[in-house]
Amino acid sequence: MNWRDRLLPASFRGVGFWVDQAKTPVGQKGQLHEYPQRDEPFFEGLGRQAKIHDLTAFIVGADCLEQRDQLLKALEEGAGELVHPWLGRMQVKVGECEMTQTRQDGGMVTFALKFYPDQPVPFPTAAVNSREQLLLSADSLLGSAVRRFEDAISLIKAARIAVKELRDCLKDVYEVIEHEFKEVIETYKELSLLVRAVKELPREVSAEFKGLLGDIKELKDFAREGYRGVLANASQQVEAVKKIDTPKLTTGKDTVAAAQAMANLVQDAVLVKLGYKVAQMPVATPVVKLNSTPSVAQQAVQPVKRLDVPVADDVLTLRDALNDAMWQAALKADAVHYQALNALRQQLYGHLTAVSSSGVRLITLSPKQSLPALVVAYQRFGDATRVGEVIQRNSAVHPGFLPPADLKVAGE
Known about the structure:
The chain is an alpha+beta fold. It has helices at 64-77, 130-154, 163-169, 171-180, 182-187, 191-200, 202-216, 221-243, 253-279, 296-301, 312-330, 335-357, 373-381, 387-393, and strands at residues 11-12, 15-16, 18-23, 28-33, 42-48, 53-60, 79-84, 88-94, 98-100, 108-117, 362-365, 407-410. The protein has three domains: 3-117, Elongation Factor Tu (Ef-tu), domain 3 (Beta Barrel); 130-359, no CATH class; 361-412. The protein is built from 14 helices and twelve strands. It is elongated.
């Protein structure tokens, strides 16, 4: 195609004109420094040149005055679309322009037009703080859990609670307390002490959990454990939530109600703890890849510093498992508590989705021969210190001999 065929008809805000010449600065702007008693100057770069378009244009024809008035009106508008014959369409602002009319050039009006790039000012946008919303929902669920427990206990006749049967019902619940709330075990060192407290002093039990979770909210597990540690602990807590969803069946209406109330309180407490823990995970910053890979010997002296980022697949697995567990817990909730549970479920889902969007995905490697995990980590990541990640994710029997089979690693 001939270059003339590629030229566009020039116009501004839909008003056409002819162009004789167009100038646009290119390259870099800067300041040249020259020093006395030195032969070599120094050029200080100040960035790219602004794309200022200088056009020498004209209008010609029997109706040149009408065309002139239309172009003048368009220029006075100040900003619009410029169709540049050589550079195409662009948004510009009008700068200093000149119009020239002479008797000898009757029927023609010439213009010296100057256009500056127009970068529209973006509208302010609000970003949802999913972490703070999650913390508020967790606080609301904690208050609702204490209210539900105390309401349920108030309908139970303590004298009708069979201690032995209640103890049998709460074995799984006590195991969860031992693992997730060690501070409570300091008060109730044996299951029998907890059973007696549920029967005789239930409000002290609920107050114990409420105060404990207030302290847990201030913990900074993420700074110590990172994404992998928090995700692993959260996955264990989801299993604990499922484990005590329904206590073991027993006889006695009041005994069953007391066991269910205590199981519900502990289950809600674990969900609140999960909310606090998940809220510690921030949305990760983009990963910056290294321009060069240090040798293994160099990494032994100075390990590679890497920003901690989550694996999206792990985050999404936790999100879906937690979502299912909370749906099951909501099935036995009253109307008020259901709203609190559902609000926390939605906030957990939203925050984990945001965290996963900033993570990396898992990919599959298919080595042709058996390789040490150290070699796989160095070849894939350029970071030998991540050998433990490769071993753990693929459940390697021996780190020196990974089988020539599909391996799952982070795709970064």
